[in-house]
Amino acid sequence: MENSLPSIPAKRYFTIGEVGELCGVKPHVLRYWEQEFTQLRPVKRRGNRRYYQHHEVLMIRRIRDLLYDQGFTISGARNKMQELAQSQKGYRKEQLAGMVSALDLPDELGSVGEMPEDENELPVMALESSHRAGSLHATSSVPSLRRELMDIRDLLSI
């Protein structure tokens, strides 16, 4: 199926017409799928014009494959997409948990959920630990390290 579809150009946003051509689906079908698949949320701008991002084009191709090629019903495809989203969420959580543990934060910081309100209370050792973590971007200030950890915590709580 996807081999017969054109390749997706390297663009940030695609109009509904472009997505229709890239996915072999008419625009009215895309609008209907937006109602049926909650994960599909294109950006809407002036005049309610829809602009899809690359990951949404891939999602539409996946939905099309489930419905047209694999014979799923709308309900079955919706459930399959939710299962895929849950498994990807679990995988991302594991990755982020590994990154947080790679920070090797000192015990006096406690868990990520117990971050002090005042960023000046964070020990300097946390900065040194972040520089040792090879896969994470080393930060140069305590407030930016705190923001990064808070972002990771928010991602883990999803």
Describe the structure.
Strand 2 and strand 3 (49-52) form a beta hairpin. This protein is mainly alpha-helical and 158 residues long. The chain has 6 helices and 3 strands; from the N terminus they run βααββαααα. The chain has a 3-stranded antiparallel β-sheet. Helices cover 55% and strands 6% of the residues. The protein has helices spanning 16-23, 27-36, 54-69, 74-102, 124-132, 142-156; strands at residues 14-15, 43-45, 49-52.
Concise description?
By secondary structure, this protein is mainly alpha-helical.
Topology, pairings included?
Layout: E1 14-15, H1 16-23, H2 27-36, E2 43-45, E3 49-52, H3 54-69, H4 74-102, H5 124-132, H6 142-156
Antiparallel strand pairs: 1-3, 2-3
Helix pairs in contact: 4-6
According to DSSP, the number of beta strands is 3
**Count of structural domains:** 2
Q: Quickly count the helices.
A: 6
N-to-C order of helices and strands: EHHEEHHHH
Biggest sheet: strand arrangement: 1-3-2
Q: Nearest-angstrom radius of gyration?
A: 21 Å
Q: Overall mean pLDDT score?
A: 78
Judged by helices, strands and strand pairing, the structural class is mainly alpha
Q: Sheet with the most strands? A: 3 strands, antiparallel
